[in-house]
Design a protein that fits this description.
This protein is mainly alpha-helical and 181 residues long. The protein is 57% helix and 3% strand. The protein is built from seven helices and two strands.
Length: 181
């Protein structure tokens, strides 16, 4: 029982090295204090929804650069809101600016867990679903999906972007690994 409590405490109270590694992964966006807040919130949400906390952090970096009250324009006049910008909604439905960091991660992690369930734990499928729903999954099954009609990045590579960032965050926690992006 004591061993379990020590493990739980260590999980929810990251080491200074873990905090510094996350801060170093996004030095323009995170301070030591905000890195710790994001790390704890992501770990709690990831544990709740049986997800990789580093993947949750990678999505937050990609979607909002760790800004808790981000509002991102989407197609059809909708917006995605919050640190993980999980689903497009009407602008009036965005949470207020007093939304807590924990809520943003919980909402995003719940959405990601839903895609892992739909995709039967297939990571590529789940990350495509998170990025663009069933439409993006279907489109990527047919071939490249360019951001613009005839040019731009291929949205089917979005899972790879998330995974690269996840691996980068992990690598910075390894001894003697202080590379910068």
């Amino acid at each position: 029982m004591i061993s379990y409590l020590v493990t739980l405490f260590a999980f929810y109270h990251p080491s200074p090295q873990d905090v510094e590694a996350l801060r170093q992964s996004a030095p323009y966006y995170l301070t030591a204090e905000t890195a710790e807040d994001h790390l704890v919130a992501a770990r709690v949400a990831a544990r709740r929804y049986r997800l990789d906390p580093d993947l949750v952090l990678a999505i937050a970096h990609h979607e909002s650069r760790y800004v808790v009250d981000t509002v991102t324009p989407e197609s059809g006049g909708r917006v995605s809101c919050g640190v993980m910008t999980p689903t497009p909604i009407d602008r009036d439905s965005c949470p207020t600016s007093d939304t807590k960091i924990e809520e943003g991660y919980m909402i995003g992690a719940a959405h990601l867990r839903g895609w892992f369930d739909v995709c039967k734990e297939n990571r590529y499928c789940a990350l495509l679903g998170y990025s663009g729903g069933y439409a993006l999954i279907a489109a990527c099954n047919r071939g490249p999906v360019l951001r613009f009609k005839d040019h731009g990045d291929d949205l089917c590579y979005t899972p790879g972007v998330f995974l690269w960032r996840r691996n980068y965050i992990v690598s910075l926690r390894m001894p003697n690994s202080r590379r910068r992006v």
